[in-house]
Automatic annotation (TrEMBL):
UniProt keyword list: Signal
Transglycosylase SLT domain boundaries: 26-150
Name the record gives this protein: Lytic transglycosylase domain-containing protein
The keyword Signal is annotated on this UniProt entry: yes
Range of residues in the leader sequence: 1-24
Length: 159
């Protein structure tokens, strides 16, 4: 009986710490692989999903309200990437983006690194992760970059 009263709370505490450790490991591993700041990746995950690995978001056409695409997981990987990720053997289907948070972070960081290769390492280019590259999306890229910058500054303790 005493063992059960001590063991259960310890197990709960141990299990509560796993996601924090796993998150830190995921961000660090992706950062090392793609040469991106782990704090920047974490800031993006906070901005994208509030660190909810099961988060989803439907992107709707502003005129018709019809769903155009869906975003999945910590880094809100857009469904337009799914066919390529499947053909590359990275994922089996969209469920991998929700059920494998470290893989989701790796994919999101890979996408960001590809964007940096196209438009250079800058806050505006970071905004392309959310808004794409079209010229008419400049303000949307800036809004996104500013939002992530604020989160990043909060993470560093700067005000």
């Amino acid at each position: 009986m005493l063992r059960r009263r001590v063991f259960r709370p310890l197990m709960v505490l141990a299990l509560c710490g796993v996601p924090l450790w796993a998150q830190a490991f995921c961000f660090d591993a992706a950062a090392a692989k793609y040469h991106v700041s782990p704090l920047l990746i974490k800031s993006m995950a906070i901005g994208e999903s509030n660190l909810d690995p099961h988060a989803t978001n439907d992107n709707r056409d502003k005129k018709t309200g019809k769903i155009k695409s869906t975003d999945y997981g910590l880094m809100m990987i857009n469904s337009t990437h799914i066919p390529r990720l499947v053909s590359m053997g990275v994922i089996r289907d969209k469920n991998d983006l929700l059920n494998k948070p470290c893989l989701n972070v790796q994919i999101g960081t890979w996408i960001l690194a590809k964007h940096f290769q196209v438009c250079g390492v800058s806050w505006n280019c970071l905004g392309s992760y959310n808004a794409g590259f079209r010229a008419d999306r400049h303000e949307t890229r800036e809004r996104y970059a500013n939002r992530i910058w604020k989160i990043y500054r909060q993470q560093t303790g700067a005000q």
